[in-house]
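Hi everyone,

Forwarding the result from last night's run.
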Amino acid sequence: MDIKITKDTQNLLLARREVEFTITHDGATPTRMNVLGKVAAMLNANMNQVVLDPFKTEFGISRLKGGARIYETKDARDKLEPEYLLKRGMREEAQDAPSNDTAEA
């Protein structure tokens, strides 16, 4: 999986960095967690402060385009991002964990 940054801007008003990228890959489309980890490592960011946009795959080519927003703090991310995008970026085991709201019989 090869990631190329195509656009990188700093949004001072919203305290975030906005990045667009292109990924070329072999085989299956990479998972969101793989892309999140690679983008965070490339940009020296904490994974908890990165939110990925939906990917756009190109038909017939092992290439996809996407975007990411890297916030300065986790609180800034939580204020601005919709809940469904935050859940989409969580690890699989965190999503499958039972909630404390239900009582066990």
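The domain at 2-91 is CATH 3.30.70.330 (Alpha-Beta Plaits).

Cheers,
N.
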